[in-house]
Each structure stands twice: as structure tokens, then as C-alpha cells.
Automatic annotation (TrEMBL):
Organism: Salinisphaera orenii MK-B5
Cytoplasmic side: 1-6, 59-64, 159-167
Disulfide linkage: 33-36
GO CC entries: plasma membrane
Cell inner membrane listed as a keyword: yes
InterPro entries (UniProt xref): DiS_bond_form_DsbB/BdbC, Disulphide_bond_form_DsbB, DsbB, DsbB-like_sf
Membrane topology, record value: Multi-pass membrane protein
Gene designation: dsbB
Official protein name in the record: Disulfide bond formation protein B
Main location group: membrane
Length: 167
């Protein structure tokens, strides 16, 4: 597979996942929780780094740089999704209480505290709003991030792409 082919796949998969997330939100009315929003940012990160690699068509070093950046985005997304899945499986009495909305947090707290607060999650993140085949949407998202991590990590090591070839 060529560098551009590799990055095309790396762009298409998260783009489809984001399109599906927006379909769920705007067509079906599923409101995303703060952790879902952060997962979208990580998914967009994978897509953007792969899109840049697709458009640039770099040589071997550039290929690895874009693949590393996409891998870091995918791993960050996997960590957030894993946290989300963990929250879903907490007993009801251990779920953090609902906190203020993201807009309010951004207005009154420094960014680092906003991130820490959101990543702790709350009751809005601990309810299953949707599932497919009995698996929650955050669990599907985690699986998607793990697959993207493996795909982009393969690109870091040049697996499945023609070495030294760029379009």
C-alpha cells in the first residue's frame, strides 16, 4: 500500500465515525456528554493528521511523523473512551454527581481544571444513551480507537506500506 493509500484509510475511518456521531446527535437526538465531546476531538485529531499525510504524500520520515501524531490522538481517544466505559460500569452509588455544564466550566475555571473536571466524568457520562448489539456506544468508540491505534502504529513502523515510496 502506498503512503497516500495508508493515510486515506486512516482519514476515512475516523471521518465515518464522526459522521455517525453527528447523525446520532442531529438526526436521532442523542445528546453527547462531555466525555463524548472529548472523544470526538481525539477522533478529529486522527482524521486531521491522516488527511495532512494524505494531501502531503510524504517520504518515509514524514510518513512516520504523521503516523505518530495520529497514533497519539488515537491513544488519547482510547484512554478517554476507556474512562467512559469504566464510568458506565460503576455501581450507581459510586457515580460522580452531575456537575455544571461545559460552557460554565470554561467561563469560571482555568483550562487545566476544566480538562480535569471533564475527564473525571459525571452522572451524564454514566448512563447508556445508545447501544448496538448490546454494546454501549462508548465501548464501540473504544474498539474503534483501538483499531485506529493499531492501524496508525503499523504506519509508524512502515508495516503494510512500500518502504521509501511516496506518491
Amino acid at each position: 500500500m502506498t503512503t497516500r493509500g495508508f493515510f486515506l484509510v486512516g482519514f476515512a475511518l475516523p471521518a465515518l465515525a464522526l459522521a455517525f456521531a453527528y447523525y446520532l446527535e442531529y438526526a436521532l437526538g442523542l445528546e453527547p456528554c462531555p466525555l463524548c465531546m472529548f472523544q470526538r476531538v481525539a477522533m478529529a485529531g486522527v482524521a486531521v493528521f491522516c488527511l495532512i499525510g494524505l494531501l502531503h504524500g510524504p517520504g518515509p520520515v514524514g510518513h512516520r511523523v504523521y503516523a505518530v501524531l495520529a497514533t497519539l490522538s488515537a491513544l488519547a481517544g482510547a484512554a478517554i473512551a476507556a474512562r467512559h466505559v469504566w464510568l458506565l460500569h460503576l455501581p450507581a452509588d459510586q457515580v460522580p454527581a452531575c456537575g455544571p455544564g461545559l460552557d460554565y466550566l470554561v467561563d469560571v475555571m482555568p483550562l487545566t481544571e476544566v480538562l480535569a473536571t471533564i475527564l473525571r466524568g459525571d452522572a451524564s457520562c454514566a448512563t447508556v444513551e445508545g447501544a448496538f448489539l448490546g454494546v454501549s456506544l462508548p465501548a464501540w468508540t473504544l474498539l474503534c480507537f483501538l483499531g485506529l491505534s493499531l492501524w496508525t502504529l503499523a504506519g509508524v513502523f512502515g508495516l503494510g506500506t512500500r518502504r521509501g515510496h511516496h506518491d
